[in-house]
Amino acid sequence: MLAEYKMPFNYVQVLIAAFGAMSLSVLTFFIAEAAGASMQFSGGAFANLDFIHIIRFTVFPFAILGFLTYVIGKSHPGICRVAQWVGVAVVAVSMVAQFFFAEDLGSAIAVAIMHVIVGVSWFIAVDNSNKRANERAVQGA
Predict the structure, then answer these.
(1) Measuring CA to CA, which residue among 94, 105, 97, 100 is closest to residue 38?
(2) Which positions ≥6 away from 38 have C-beta within 8 Å?
(3) Could you give the CA distance from residue 112 to residue 115 in angstroms, rounded to a whole number?
């Protein structure tokens, strides 16, 4: 019987990336506020960006969508590559929207930087990093 190690990536890396992205986004938030960004928005999901919004809109979607990618990736490892690029595309589109809704340029740039942080973290987190381990397990068995 052939034993296969079928994990597209370690889900713990998704959680680490989620909290890392959140931490860097919070740091960006405090730096932007100290630099004079109002963090006020005229439309969209909220009128005022607060600390709790960063946690809510970073960790929870990241962890939930990462878990779904992990579960689906166990049976279809190719989905990891698709999820990487779909996540980056969604982040890129929503990053541009900040420039339309922000009350000042500092807020728009700060939130855009937060989006870049989340996009890069997502891309790294859901990488099919166990691909070589899976190939070695199949060859060794």
Answers:
(1) 105
(2) 103, 104, 106, 107
(3) 5
Amino acid at 44: G
Query: In this predicted model, what pLDDT tens digit does every residue of 50-62 receive, in sequence order?
Result: 889 999 999 999 9
Q: What is the Cα–Cα distance from 14 to 73, expressed in whole angstroms?
A: 13
How far, in Å, CA of 40 to CA of 109, rounded?
12
How much of the chain is in helix, strand and coil states, percent to nearest 5?
75, 5, 25
**51, amino acid identity:** F
| Whether the predicted model's global pTM rises above the 0.90 cut | no
What's the token pair of residue 43?
């439309």
